Prior knowledge:
Radius of gyration: 18 Å
Structural class: alpha/beta
Keywords: Fatty acid biosynthesis, Fatty acid metabolism, Lipid biosynthesis, Lipid metabolism, NAD, Oxidoreductase
Strand order of the largest sheet: 3-2-1-4-5-6-7
Oligomer: single chain
Binding site for NAD(+): 14, 41, 65-66, 93, 163, 192-196
Number of strands: 7
CATH architecture: 3-Layer(aba) Sandwich
CATH superfamily: NAD(P)-binding Rossmann-like Domain
CATH class: Alpha Beta
GO molecular function: enoyl-[acyl-carrier-protein] reductase (NADH) activity
Helix content: 25-40%
Active site: 146, 156
Enzyme class: oxidoreductase
Number of helices: 7
Bound molecules: nicotinamide-adenine-dinucleotide
Amino acid sequence: MTGLMQGKRGLIMGLANDKSLAWGIAKKLSEQGAELAFSYQGDALLKRVKPLAEQLGSDTLIDCDVSDMDALDTAFATLKAKWPTIDFVVHAIGFSDKSQLRGKFYDTTLDNFLMTMNISAYSLVAVAKRAREMMPDGGSILTLTYYGAEKVIPHYNVMGVAKAALETSVKYLAVDMGPENIRVNAISAGPIQTLAARGIGDFNYILKWNELNSPLRRTVTIEDVGGAGLYMLSDLAAGVTGEIHHVDAGYNVIGMKAEDAPDI
Ligand code: NAD
C-alpha cells in the first residue's frame, strides 16, 4: 500500500525530536507521499527539527508558539504564502509546569492551570480556526490525547483536566466543521518515553504498569501512533470525525490488574 497521501500536504505541529509522537506520524505520512511543513517552538528546537524535516524532504519550517495568537496568525500567513491550501494538520502539543505534574492536583496554581489549558487545549481551537480557512475542499485535523483525561492517573493532574477539555474540543470542532467536510479527531496514545513525558512524575512506573497489564502486554511505539495517524488523516477515515481513538495496546478496556502481572 503506497501513495495514500499522494497530492496531499499539511502542517505538523509539535515535533521536538525523533522520539516525538509527531515524528512517528510525520514518517508514515511522508512514506505515503504527503508533503509536509513543520512548526516548531523557538530557536532552541529549530536545530533539532531542521535535520528531521530534511530527512522527509521538507524545507518548510515555521516558528510558532501556540500560546501567542499573533504568532499563530503569522505562522498560518507564512504557510499560506507557500501553499494556498492544505489538507491536514497534526496538533501534537502539550505543556504544563512539571513541578505540578506530581503531588496533589489541588496544589495546581491558577497561573499554571490557565497556561496548561491554553497551550494543551485552547491551542487546538485556535489552530483549527486558522487551518479551516486553508481547507476550502475539506481536510483533516488530528490531535493527541491521553487516558488521564478519562480516568485519574497518578501525577497527571492538571494535564488530565486539560486533555479532557481537549477531547471535548475535538467533538465541538467536529460538529462546527463537519459541514465543510473538515474532520477533527484525536488519538489517545498509551504512554511513550518522550521529552514531554519526562516531566510526569513516576513516568517509568506508568510505562511498566501499562506493559504488564494492557491486553497486548506491551506499550505502544511512535510507529503504532503513526499508523493510526495516517489512517485518521487519509481518505481511509473519510467517514470518521469527532472520534477519540485509543492506540494504547488496549489498556483502556481493562478493569483490573492482569492475573499474570507481577508486582512492580
Ligand atoms: P514531545 O516533547 O516530543 O512534544 C511536545 C511538543 O509540544 C514539543 O514539540 C514542544 O515544542 C511542543 N510545545 C509545547 N509548548 C508549546 C508551545 N507553547 N507552542 C508550540 N509548541 C509547544 O512529546 P510528545 O509526547 O510527543 O507530545 C506530543 C503530544 O502527545 C502531546 O499533546 C502529549 O500530551 C501527547 N501524548 C503523549 C503521550 C506520551 O506518553 N508521550 C501519550 C499520549 C499523548
